[in-house]
Design a protein that fits this description.
The complex is a heterodimer of chains A (about 150) and B (about 260). Chain A is α/β, with parallel strands linked by helices and about 150 residues long. Chain A has three helices and eight strands, in the order H-H-E-E-E-E-E-E-E-E-H. In chain B, helix 3 crosses helix 7 and helix 4 runs antiparallel to helix 5. Classes of the chains: A alpha/beta (about 150), B mainly alpha (about 260). At the A-B interface, helix 1 of A face helix 3, helix 7, helix 8 and helix 9 of B.
Chain lengths: ~150, ~260
């Protein structure tokens, strides 16, 4: 009887340790917190070039995450990239002339969408489209521009 | 004529070993087909399952935790030496966590588990068979499938994913100790970078799915080899060896297939 009890205590401790490590992995190691669906509304934007932007990339205002990119596809009419993003409902007072640009965190970091708030009275609603967008910087274009300027100034 | 005979004997040997492999695959299929309906019985006799969880899980804890700690520490150390050249040593936590969650955690735990618990299972069942304990149970109208095999299968199946979680948590703790405690990586960005790039569904859940698949593989192979062992001491010893070899190779091959399917 005593032996069986010891076995049960050990197995109980084993289960407990597993649960603790699962909690640690969920809360400390992975993005389990941000995974749960916050209520959000959807806006879109047309970009000439999205560079290396990926689905699930963050949407930021002044560097603070306010949403996620949920879809990237080519617009059938303009052949630009249509980026769909979910912005959390707590940030629902963005004016209609808010602009979006694709930025890079650090020199080698991931790309994200930075929103710059406009000044219009009208607000962005679910399904609205950003009119002012700025594409990702492409290194080859930059070098090309630099070479053109360089040869002109000579 | 002589040469023809020698050649024929070689060909016959090849055929015999192929047939042997096919026959053992067939026996494995029959064994699984009779084992799977018996698995629910392991939850009716709960104390048997707890006993087997102790044997397979708790007794494997020391080796899993120690191995996890050292794997995490050495992974972080090697990653640090490379990343420090690019001034991005904070990313070492990301590297450790991702490689552990996706590959090393499930695979190394499964390999250790096959050596530590799988071999013990085979030896135990093989010895039960060679001393005719299984036949004795059958004579007493106790079904060894429900009474012996099912609790051991369920215990191995439950214990391996749990051990994998513990291994990963321990390894990340080891990585944290080396990176933050010893090498002086900034603690805040160590965790923040890890959190921002480890995805709960994509990385953690896929790793756990792998671990469950490995658990099924190892439990099946270990029990089948014990059941199929020649009832001699030599037979039991070679069955134990086969368990470790087959499950290790099986785990590595299955890992490649699962990785190709999950992270494409």
């Amino acid at each position: 009887m005593k032996r069986q009890l010891m076995v049960e205590i050990w197995v109980g401790a084993f289960v407990l340790m597993t649960l603790v490590s699962l909690a640690v992995i969920a809360l400390q190691v992975s993005n389990f917190n941000s995974w749960k669906d916050k209520s959000s509304y959807q806006i879109t934007g047309l970009f000439d070039n999205i560079g290396g932007l990926k689905v699930r990339a963050p949407v930021k205002i002044s560097g603070v995450v306010v949403g996620r990119v949920t879809g990237i596809e080519v617009d059938a009419r303009t052949y630009q990239a249509r980026v769909t993003m979910d912005v959390y409902s707590e940030f629902d007072e963005l004016s209609i002339d808010t602009s979006g640009s694709i930025l890079t965190s650090g020199l080698l970091g991931d790309q994200y969408i930075g929103l710059v708030i406009g000044s219009d009275e009208e607000l962005l609603a679910d399904g609205s489209q950003l009119d002012l967008t700025q594409s990702a910087l492409v290194l080859e274009d930059l070098i090309g521009q630099f070479l053109v300027k360089f040869s002109e100034s000579k | 004529m002589n040469i023809m005979n020698a050649l024929l004997i070689r060909v016959a040997g090849l055929g015999a070993s192929s047939l042997g492999v096919l026959a053992s695959i067939g026996r494995l299929g029959l064994f699984l087909a009779s084992l799977i309906p018996a698995i629910p019985y392991s939850f009716y006799r709960f104390e048997l399952l707890v006993k087997q969880l102790y044997v397979a899980g708790v007794l494997s804890l020391p080796i899993i935790l120690t191995a996890g700690l050292f794997v995490g520490m050495v992974l972080t150390l090697q990653g640090y030496y490379v990343l420090v050249d690019y001034n991005s040593e904070e990313a070492v936590g990301t590297m450790t966590a991702l490689s552990l969650l996706r590959e090393l955690g499930p695979v190394v735990t499964a390999l250790l588990f096959a050596g530590r618990a799988g071999s013990a299972l085979t030896a135990e069942i093989g010895l039960m068979r060679s001393t005719e304990q299984l036949s004795a149970l059958e004579m007493m109208a106790v079904d060894p499938l429900k009474f012996i095999f099912a609790p051991r299968f369920s215990a191995a199946f439950i214990a391996l994913p749990m051990l994998t979680l513990l291994f990963i948590a321990m390894a990340i703790l080891g990585g944290y100790l080396v990176a933050v405690g010893w090498l002086g990586v900034d603690e805040g960005s160590f965790w923040a970078q890890m959190q921002s790039s480890v995805d709960w569904r994509e990385d953690v859940m896929n790793g756990m799915i792998k671990s469950v698949a490995f658990a099924f593989l190892i439990a099946t192979i270990a029990l089948f080899q014990g059941h199929d062992a020649m009832p001699t001491s030599e037979g039991v010893s070679s069955a134990t060896t086969r368990t470790v070899v087959h499950s290790s190779l099986g785990v590595l091959a299955l890992d490649f297939i699962l990785t190709a399917m999950m992270f494409s």
